[in-house]
Amino acid sequence: xxxxxxxxxxxxxxxxxxxxxxxxxxxxxxxxxxxxxxxxxxxxxxxxxxxxxxxxxxxxxxxxxxxxxxxxxxxxxxxxxxxxxxxxxxxxxxxxxxxxxxxxxxxxxxxxxxxxxxxxxxxxxxxxxxxxxxxxxxxxxxxxxxxxxxxxxxxxxxxxxxxxxxxxxxxxxxxxxxxxxxxxxxxxxxxxxxxxxxxxxxxxxxxxxxxxxxxxxxxxxxxxxxxxxxxxxxxxxxxxxxxxxxxxxxxxxxxxxxxxxxxxxxxxxxxxxxxxxxxxxxxxxxxxxxxxxxxxxxxxxxxxxxxxxxxxxxxxxxxxxxxxxxxxxxxxxxxxxxxxxxxxxxxxxxxxxxxxxxxxxxxxxxxxxxxxxxxxxxxxxxxxxxxxxxxxxxxxxxxxxxxxxxxxxxxxxxxxxxxxxxxxxxxxxxxxxxxxxxxxxxxxxxxxxxxxxxxxxxxxxxxxxxxxxxxxxxxxxxxxxxxxxxxxxxxxxxxxxxxxxxxxxxxxxxxxxxxx
Length: 516
Description:
- By secondary structure, the chain is mainly α.
- Helix content is 66%, strand content 1%.
- The protein has 23 helices and two strands.
- It has helices spanning 20-47, 62-71, 82-108, 115-132, 140-154, 164-168, 187-199, 205-234, 239-247, 250-255, 263-278, 282-293, 302-316, 321-343, 354-361, 366-381, 386-397, 399-414, 420-435, 449-452, 458-476, 491-499, 501-515, and strands at residues 53-55, 481-483.
- A two-stranded antiparallel sheet has the order 1-2.
- The longest helix is centred in the middle third of the chain and has 30 residues, at 205-234.
- The relative contact order is 0.10.
């Protein structure tokens, strides 16, 4: 018989252990509340950024903060000391990341959220960040606007003219700029820059910046929705979880709608193209991949892998190889079409890529730059044209990345699987960041972290954890600030003397040697 003490009686309340779903719901609620509070506190902290300071690792955009501050009526907020800002900034980053992890971990344990609610939450976060979070962490969004203003207001080609023409014309955007360099981005993005400025010709710099930030916010939402579709291809029950994991990702929020980096749009078009390809809408998939390619050329790496996957599938289905070749050719032309159309009004010959070549040298040591020019000189003396010599030098610097790409191609060919080329893309873009790009900025992690969030097995969870740790570590460097003198020369003059001085000297020596 059951002892009386365990029987249910009117005067005895039995405590029951919360179910897994109840625990998940509690964790989600607590995590969401802490996440929202941390995000709002971080936004307020940016307006308290100390005066006359800059970031030691990445330049802080103080003028951008003051612009948002005046437009939002927050001029009365007090400014903190550099040490206080560093401590508070890093603490809030840790809290933001921890609450994000708590929300995702709780949902993985059994919590659920409707798709409409998930979309509303992400959209609300994007809108708040776009309008309220000033671009403290980067000046890139102002550089993007400057490219559009060069074309729209002054009728010049942003691939051939740098922001110095804006300074000569006393354009108000020059106070926010750092680099005196023509655009290095693809033609699709450059036309978008021009389109934003042209559509808001009479708008203020602040309003144009907000639109650019909103554009990246919309790209983040599209990325989250496309990620949901892709995740359901691998794990049907993880779709809404993936949407929130991408849409509320602190790195993607702060670097996308927060700072206005165009990497959001690049990855969004890439993921939408992947969805369309898996749904066998091949022509639209090619166009989306072409739009991504027209923002930054790194998307070119994934196209041969998709072609290889398509070839294998169609041959297994019994389609003649001649017909496959025709379809592949049409697809490749469709992928090239956006760039060709957008370049039609911007092409400036070989000089179109001059700024991109200069940017490729940024971050290299003086010895590496000298070796690069020595190789180019040797190639030219042995019959290579300037363009071919530059291309061969670029390939030589990229030899490690090219070996990794070849190994990934063999891996995909020998062990094919549905959507495996997405994992290969994540590996390749990681190697590109570490072995080729100098320096490596935290927003480059946006290339591969969303791919890791599409899968929820142990390997991909470990990769996501690594991405999160690396993002937190690098973004913490933004919190390193130091006092500087008020009578500082124009920002881009200082940076050009330090970052590009070595390149200029070597080019001068090279030209003098050529004259002799």
